[in-house]
Specification:
The chain is α/β, with parallel strands linked by helices. Helices cover 25% and strands 28% of the residues. The longest helix has 22 residues.
Amino acid sequence: MIKALVTLHPQERLGAVDPYIYGQYFEHLGNCIYPAVSDHGSPLADERGLRRDVVEAARELDVPVIRWPGGCFVDLYDWKDGVGPREQRPVRYNWHWGGLESNQFGTDEFLHWCEQAGAEPYINVNLGTGTLIDSLRWIDYCNGRETADAAWRKANGRDEPYNVKLWGIGNETWGHWEAGQLSASDYAGRLANWAQFAKKYDSSLQLLGVGSYEGKDHDWDRKVLEAAAGYLHYLTVHIYGCSIDRESTDEYYPIVFTPVYFEQRMREMRQTVADTLRDSKMQLKQPIRLSLDEWNIRHYEPDPQRGEGAYRLNRNSPRNLQDALFVAGVLNAMIRLSPDVGMANYVFLVNGNGVMNVTEDGVVKTPLYYVFQQYRKWMVGEHVRLDIQSPAMMTPAPKVSNPEYTKELALAHRPVQAPLLDAVAVIPEEGGLHISLTNRHLTEGAEIALELPAGMKIAQQWTLTHDDIHAANTPASPDTVVPVWAEHKGGAAVSVPPHSLVLLKCENS
């Protein structure tokens, strides 16, 4: 049994935690949209073809914001193909991911889905192969009142504007795989030009510009900010974790400590933003915050067709408890970096590494679902300082992106002594204190003493764990990994099982 001490300093409030960091993501890839979100042939779908059970599960999750339509998909997407009478929409090749795109789930379906689920929409425009006028017309279709495109929206059944405020300009534009790849200078110039006209249309729009992968290309980020900072609310960053071995415990520590690497990368990118704005002496009307608008933990498996040492992505491998601890670690990192990290979008909400696995018969809530759900309920408010005294270990090389080049991508990792107990705390709007505790030790439970403010006690404990770190929820066994609630009679000590996540609600006694 390991011993730890957590000292809370609620008088030291470090910044607001934005609910947007618990955001999600849709992309037209594999079975992530069809038939999981949109299925006109399903008895579970409404008149628009939207799966009612998926909407209900998203509403229970309280998804704050969702990104669509991509991602790589968007830079070969013509939004006009996805509006109008359903039977008249063209079937296109999915130019990036392969297969056919029916265009049955388009702008109106997405925005209607968001309204039904209670989520804020975040739309990426096609910078890669689209034009400025296409992007402006898309904004006007969603938000306009008097133009031909607004009339088109009304003819398609929506009289009032959707008032979409979040718009991304570009996606991974630095990548050789991306349609319309650009250099830093070329992207920065185009971003500034497109953003200028979007702001001329509506100065209240909140625009996102493409930052470098993992925040490691400081030259890219500086050039983007120097050209377009005056128009932007967010600079995006993408970071992925990965897993190969889902049978042994060999990967356990590299995976549960990979969030330390995420935090290092976001801290460095935050510093690049601050340094660039200081050096350029820009006077901005709004802060520029980071948006981790693509992140997850991918599952890979050997690819014998490509030979020894090759791997292929298995997007439909069920997410397990180990993945849930990874997710909690990344959420804790973003809470510590609040408010400078202002949004994030997990890849994906449905299927494909998903928070929910959707079959033709229903929705399976993965362990990740319960992490996002409870953080969304409890871990919003003012982030407060805490000190941890806990056994620690030197962080192993992180598991990032793709096992075929994870070592190269992880070169920026700086090994540190990291506590086996990860903890963050917030003061919610209604008062009290909410604390998240992750015991990253594989086999040892933790006895944790909490130094709480005078007169405060633990009222409730929420625990997510399982004997098997690879335990997952499946259609055949949907409740294998579920949270357990317990009431507390008082005191300021708590037992945390090995490889577990515990959330505490503390109240005045």
